[in-house]
Structures are given as structure tokens and as C-alpha cells.
Design a protein that fits this description.
Blueprint: E1 25-27, E2 33-34, E3 47-51, H1 54-65, E4 69-74, H2 89-110, E5 111-121, H3 126-137, E6 142-149, E7 164-171, H4 182-186, H5 194-197, E8 215-219, E9 221-223, E10 237-238, E11 245-246, E12 252-254, H6 258-266, E13 270-271, E14 282-286, E15 299-300, H7 306-317, H8 329-339, E16 345-348, H9 355-362, E17 366-371, H10 375-389, E18 407-413, E19 418-420, E20 426-428, H11 434-445, E21 448-449, E22 460-463, E23 466-470, E24 474-475, H12 477-487, E25 492-497, E26 499-500, E27 510-514, H13 547-555
Parallel strand pairs: 3-17, 3-18, 4-5, 4-16, 6-15, 16-17, 23-25, 24-26, 25-27
Antiparallel strand pairs: 1-18, 2-18, 5-7, 6-7, 8-14, 9-12, 10-11, 13-14, 19-20, 21-22, 22-23
Length: 557
């Protein structure tokens, strides 16, 4: 049978996927921070800053946060520069696409059904990203390609200079034949501007001003050219002031049915001009009936520039920022306002300088940031500390009337659960204490880690009647019998232990597995870095004429 073909982006290594270990997160109290007192009744303290490889961090978050993140904002790095000069261009883009695809697939699982992801990129990879994102989220879930003006003038080293970045937006899901994703249906409108409100006025009419207040005039005709003419929408309408029957202008038809126009006329919702002599009436849209916000355009010229963000960084740290193109808080504020409401979770897995967390915190959203670089400690923590203390004067501080408050918890990724001993055998990592081991095995087996305060054998649960117990002990028949009796009918217990005696079938309420044997094949162990590191790239093939020389050198005694 011929395999069904589909349109897709292909690249070297696309079918290779990492078998990720779901690591546990270790809280670092010394780097966590919170305000000394509550500033408001809705201060948020459970924000998360995670130090470590972001692919492993996303996998670590998946069990707890799948389906809970309302908005994901990422600014994927493309800082390879000239380091790729000795590599084939196809290898370069293949590595980048694999790097992003592996992360997008987990990010998609973290989103709420009405959640959205916003990806900022320049022209180097934006168009590859559009096709890749469509493959992960579905082409029908694509919402917009927003152009954000990032600089006030073009660079002088190009004949055509780019002054914008792309912000590609997808929703998580779209119901049936709907034109909109659930995310777009849930989006917030932008606040109305004075210019928009100025369109609503009180107009003079033969019967005096309409007592329902200011309104905007809407055309009642539609273009009938190009096959768009509708015969049933071409009819006469009687002007109530002149008695004249008026018809749509040449090449047009009415926008409304005859019955709807009669209803508008009866409700005095047609405007016939100051003296009532207009030959084409206009429909009244009252300000009180208008949307309480405005649709967001796809070109953003008013959300700050890279240089504004750089100046903010200099104010915070007293030096030029180490980031070439930091994003301004105004940009993140626009995204977060549209996509979320207070209390929602916002995630940025490429934490960078911490702008997403800073903006989300000031706007009363919960946030998670992941960063592998040392600037997690040198920039993000000091920045968020200033935000919490209310001593960050820049960004959206004034716009949000931010006074400080709340806090965050700092986490680092635990090491791999299994390590090779000196003979090359996988054994339990000696860095793991009993609690860490129990939590790690719970996560590997799909259980929620929640140790009981009263029952030593309840380390986690998968339902209200299904539990797990993790120990490195060698359990005897007597111990297993006691556990089986304590669990009792109607409940089950998964035991993961170093070894045991007895036949499992003798213990109907228990499922018994040996560790580490039971988890050996679940994932790849000891892999701590899935980032795009130059030293991990394959070597470039030798140039023509060099291959024989290399072969001769290798064969020389």
C-alpha cells in the first residue's frame, strides 16, 4: 500500500528524537526571593526560575504543567555567527530546526486549550519557523505574523535594511469549522484610544440629536463588482423625510436584507443627513454599543525598541547589557495583555535577560522562566529582585503602577538518576538521597510525588486508590505480606525496590518492580546538555584533494 504523502518541511536528522529523562527540580532556597511583606492581597509567590538546559527543564515541567500554561513567549537564540562557516549550510539549519522542533512539541503539550505561543525571530529563520510551527500546532491554528519595529532606522551596511522582527503566533486548538482558535476567541482587546473614540460624535438631524448619544456612521452599501453583486440586496428604500425612494449607488448593493433595513429604519438607526436629504443613508453605531476595546493591528510601531531595552538594562545594572537585542517590557506587556488575564501562567523557556518574567510579574501573572546561561544568576535574579523590591523604575513600572511585592522560587535540574559505574553499568546516582530517589521514580512511572505524613509506603499516587513506594531495600516475604495487608482490597501499590523475595502473584494488591532495572529503557541517561553547542557539531567533510592526504597520514606508522 502506497504511503499517503503530505506537505512538510524536511531536514537532516528530522526523524531522530531524544529520549528525554524527566528530571526532578531541586529548589535552591538561597537563590529564591520574596518580598518582606505583602504589598497587595493578590501578590504572587509561586513563580519559578529554573537554571538548566531548557529541553530537560520543559520535560521536567510536563507532568505538573501539561495543559496549564496560558501563554508561551520565546525568543530563540541564533547566536552561532561565524562558528558555522566550516559547516555545510544544510547541517546548520538542520541542527537549528531540530533544536526548536524538540522544544515546540513539549511546549504545545503545556498549553491550555485556549493558550497561545508567541515566537520572536528575525528573517534568518522566521520563515522556516512558520512551516515548522504549522507542522507542530496545525496550519489552521496559526493566528498572525506580527511585525514589531525593533529599531528606529535601517542599518547602513545593507541596501535594504531590516528594522523589524517577526512575532509568529499560534493557538493550541481550534474547534471544528471555526475560523478562530480558542486562543484568539479568548484574547483581550486593546484599550480604546482617544482617536478611536473621536469617531463617535453627536450629529445634527431633522428631528434633533439622537437621544441615545454619540454614534459613528457606517456605510450601508457594499461593493457589487467582481461577481459580488447580490440581486436580493438591490431594492429601494424610502427616505422618511423626503418620501423619495433611494437605491444603492451604481456598482453597489445594500449590506443588509430588506427586512433588516426596515428594522433599522423603524428604530431610527439610519442617518439621512443634517437636513434629511441624503440619497444613501448611513447606519448608526452608537458608542455605547461599540466593542469596549480595539482590535490589535499586525504591525507594532509603539511597543519600544531594542535601544530602549538596552537603556533599561544599563539603568538596572550600571553597564551596557551583554545582550545584543534585548526586548523592551512594553513589547512583552502587549503580548501578555492580549493573551492572558491576571493569575494566568506565562512561560519563557529562553529566559535571556528576564524581560518576560519582569513584565508578567508587574502585570500580576504567574511566570516560569528557564535559562542555562550564567546570566540567570548575574542578570535575571538581580533584575527580578529589584522588581519584587519595587526598585526597578523602568519598563512598564509606571504604566502598571507597580510598587513591588510577590516572589519567586529558584530551581536547578537534578543530575541524571542513573550513572555508569567504573565497569560501565548503570547504577543509581549516589547524589540521590531517599526523597530525591522517590520523587524521580514517581515521575518516571507517571505518579504524582506526594509523600504521606502518616504512611511510610505512600510516596506518590496516580489516583485516590493507587499509590507507589520507592526504596533501595531488599524486601523480604514478611515485609511484602505486611504491605499487602496494609494496602488491602480496593487499593493498589506499585513497589519499586532494590530486590525482593517471594512470588509477586502471592501479593494481589502489590505490583513489584526492581530498580534500576525497571527504568533502564525508559530514556537516555547522563545526557545533561541538549543545547546547540558548536563543539557537539559533526566535523565538516574534507575538501576535495585533501581526503587522500588524510588517509595517507592515518596509515603512516
Amino acid at each position: 500500500m502506497t504511503q499517503k504523502q503530505k506537505l512538510e518541511l524536511t531536514w537532516i536528522g528530522k526523524d531522530t528524537r531524544p529520549r528525554l529523562e524527566p528530571r526532578i527540580l531541586l529548589q535552591g532556597l538561597e537563590r529564591s526571593y520574596h518580598a518582606q511583606h505583602r504589598v497587595t492581597s493578590h501578590d504572587i509567590f509561586d513563580n519559578k526560575l529554573i537554571f538548566g538546559d531548557n529541553l530537560l527543564a520543559l520535560k521536567a515541567l510536563e507532568q505538573e504543567f501539561a495543559g496549564r500554561i496560558k501563554c508561551i513567549v520565546i525568543d530563540p537564540p541564533y547566536n552561532t555567527g561565524v562558528a558555522f562557516e566550516q559547516y555545510d549550510d544544510g547541517v546548520e539549519h538542520s541542527l537549528w530546526l531540530t533544536l526548536i522542533r524538540d522544544r515546540l512539541e513539549i511546549l504545545a503539550r503545556l498549553l491550555t486549550p485556549d493558550g497561545s505561543i508567541w515566537v520572536t525571530l528575525d528573517d534568518n529563520e522566521a520563515h522556516y519557523m512558520k512551516v515548522l510551527g504549522d507542522e507542530v500546532f496545525g496550519r489552521g491554528c496559526f493566528i498572525a505574523d506580527i511585525s514589531w519595529q525593533k529599531r528606529d532606522g535601517p542599518p547602513n551596511d545593507r541596501k535594504i535594511g531590516s528594522i523589524h522582527d517577526h512575532i509568529l503566533v499560534w493557538g493550541k486548538s481550534k474547534p471544528g469549522a471555526s475560523k478562530k482558535t480558542l486562543a484568539e476567541e479568548a484574547f483581550n482587546l486593546m484599550p480604546r484610544t482617544e482617536k478611536a473614540d473621536a469617531q463617535y460624535q453627536t450629529f445634527a438631524e431633522p428631528d434633533g440629536p439622537d437621544q441615545r448619544g454619540a454614534f459613528r456612521k457606517i456605510d450601508t452599501t457594499a461593493n457589487g463588482k467582481g461577481g459580488r453583486f447580490v440581486e436580493s440586496l438591490f431594492y429601494g428604500v424610502k427616505n422618511p423625510y423626503t418620501g423619495e425612494e433611494v437605491w444603492p449607488r451604481k456598482g453597489t448593493c445594500w449590506r443588509h436584507s430588506k427586512a433588516e433595513m426596515a428594522r433599522l429604519q423603524a428604530d431610527k438607526r439610519l442617518y439621512w443627513g443634517v437636513n434629511g436629504t441624503a440619497t444613501t443613508p448611513m447606519r448608526k453605531l452608537f458608542k455605547t454599543e461599540a466593542k469596549q476595546g480595539m482590535t490589535t493591528p499586525s504591525i507594532w510601531l509603539d511597543t519600544g525598541l531594542n535601544q530602549h531595552a538596552s537603556a533599561h538594562m544599563e539603568t538596572l545594572f550600571g553597564e551596557k547589557a551583554a545582550f545584543e537585542t534585548p526586548k523592551p517590557e512594553q513589547l512583552l506587556s502587549r503580548i501578555i495583555h492580549i493573551a492572558t488575564n491576571p493569575g494566568d501562567w506565562v512561560l519563557d523557556s529562553f529566559g535571556g535577560s528576564g524581560t518576560t518574567g519582569a513584565a508578567a510579574h508587574k502585570m500580576g501573572r504567574r511566570w516560569i522562566m528557564v535559562e542555562l546561561g550564567e546570566h540567570c544568576h548575574t542578570h535575571i535574579i538581580p533584575r527580578m529582585t529589584k522588581v519584587i523590591d519595587g526598585t526597578d523604575p523602568g519598563g512598564i513600572t509606571d504604566a502598571t503602577a507597580w510598587k513591588g511585592g510577590g516572589g519567586f522560587r529558584y530551581y536547578r535540574l537534578a543530575p541524571s538518576l542513573l550513572r555508569n559505574d567504573k565497569w560501565g553499568n548503570l547504577v543509581i546516582n549516589k547524589e540521590f538521597n531517599a526523597a530525591m530517589l522517590a520523587e524521580a521514580v514517581c515521575k518516571l512511572e507517571g505518579y504524582t510525588y506526594a509523600p504521606s505524613e502518616t504512611l511510610y509506603w505512600q510516596h506518590g499516587h496516580s489516583s485516590e486508590n493507587s499509590f507507589t513506594y520507592v526504596t533501595t531495600q531488599h524486601l523480604t516475604c514478611e515485609q511484602l505480606t505486611q504491605l499487602n495487608d496494609e494496602v488491602g482490597p480496593g487499593r493498589s501499590l506499585l513497589i519499586c525496590c532494590g530486590a525482593f523475595r517471594g512470588k509477586p502473584e502471592n501479593y494481589p494488591h502489590l505490583e513489584i518492580k526492581k530498580i534500576p532495572k525497571t527504568v533502564l529503557a525508559k530514556c537516555e541517561w547522563g545526557h545533561d546538555d541538549y543545547s546547540l553547542k558548536i563543539e557537539n557539531l559533526p566535523k565538516a567533510p574534507p575538501k576535495p584533494g585533501q581526503q587522500n592526504l588524510f588517509a595517507e597520514l592515518e596509515a603512516a606508522p
